Amino acid sequence: MTRTLKIDFVSDVVCPWCVVGLGGLEGALETLKGEGIDAEITFQPFELNPQMPPEGENIVEHVGRKYGSTPEQSAGARQMIHDRAAEVGFTMNTGPDSRIWNTFDAHRLLYWAAPGSRPEVTTAQAMADQRALKMALFDAHFTEGRNLTDPEVLADAAAKALGSSPGVTRAEALAVLAEGRYADEVRAEAALWVARGISGVPAVVVEGKYLISGGQPVAVFEEALRKIAGET
User: Fold this and answer.
1) Domains along the sequence of the chain with CATH
2) How far is the C-alpha of 199 from the C-alpha of 32, rounded, in Å?
3) For site-directed labelling of 93, which of 116, 140, 212, 229 has its Cα 20 to 30 A away?
4) Residue 198 to residues 9, 111, 156, 217: CA-CA distances in angstroms?
5) Where are the alpha helices (DSSP H) in the chain?
């Protein structure tokens, strides 16, 4: 009999470790299917830089201001993260001229894709849609270097990820953004996870009470999920 774990993946779309963590989590789940362990993953909002202005900030300047890193340290960390991302099959092309963006509108689109927001879509389809959109947004930022505050860029990601899903069109994605839909819901969800003690991402919350933090390798997720499945 398969044991299906409920997982909330709390993350931001400009967080490189969230790419690594999602790859590690999904790699572990692929292995654990053979042991009768599966999961339903819902992506939850977290804003690393909620006060970021629309024009964004250069990545080297941002990391230096926020963490005190020198340009050389920033470059070294960036290469290490690129290597970790490549291990889970994701290509990062960020460099010293890349920018960090405000991600609130991206989270609104992810809420639109999530289970419950579109009544005509099954829960399973919505989960698949949300995951596809998450990956499209990761691609837009880390691989293509596009501006995540630009509605046209966000609509492109939605069309790429959700084009075959019921009720989804590029025009509808633009309408969601233009009309400010789901703003209150995203703020409430983000505040809820902060209130629950989440201060950094990725935060992988299993069954509402077990926390696996950071961009962990596949083996770490395997061990943790195997233990949790046994306990529950």
Assistant:
1) 3-231 (3.40.30.10)
2) 29
3) 212
4) 11, 19, 30, 20
5) 16-32, 59-67, 71-87, 104-113, 123-138, 151-162, 170-178, 183-195, 218-231
